[in-house]
Every structure is written in C-alpha cells, then in structure tokens.
Amino acid sequence: MMKYFDTGTILVIVITFILFGVALFSKGFTHDLLLEAGVFLVSVKLILMSYKNGLNHIELQKDLQEIKKLLEKGYGK
User: Is 1 a domain residue?
Assistant: First the structure.
C-alpha cells in the first residue's frame, strides 16, 4: 500500500473514515446522512484517482527508462 500512497494520502483516508463515522453517529439516519454520504463518496473518488495516478506514474517511469536504454544503445554511450 505504501508503494502507491504516501503518508499524507493515508492520513487523509483515515481522517475521512473517522469523520464519516462521527457524522454517522452524531447525525443518525436522517436527511443529513445523504449529504455526509455524498461528501464521503467524493473523498473516495479522489482517493481512487490518486491511486490510478500513482499507477500511471510508475508505468510512465518504466517506459521512459526503456526509451533511455534504447537511445543509449543506439548512440553507443
């Protein structure tokens, strides 16, 4: 998990879960719960986007390393 998420992201995930739980128990199952659930889902979406961005970054780094190796091989460095 630490491969894709930094400490700040994990901290935000934990705080989001805690705040959602506190809101759930303090507000109860009322109309405000829908608002809290919406905020929670936006947070989850941002976390998933961050995860996919991390995966894309790693893949891009690998591709750039391959290109660098091919260029060095072609120019005889």
Answer: no
What's the domain range around 55? 7-75
Within-domain flag for 11: yes
Per the CB < 8 A criterion, the answer to whether 19 and 37 are in contact is no
Do 47 and 9 meet the contact criterion of CB atoms below 8 Å apart? yes
CA distance 23 to 5: 25
pLDDT by residue (tens digit) across 9-58?
778 778 888 887 887 787 776 767 777 778 878 887 888 888 888 889 99
Q: Would you say residue 33 lies in a domain?
A: yes
Q: Are 21 and 71 in contact (CB under 8 A)?
A: no
- The alpha helices in the chain, defined as continuous H runs, are 7-27, 32-75
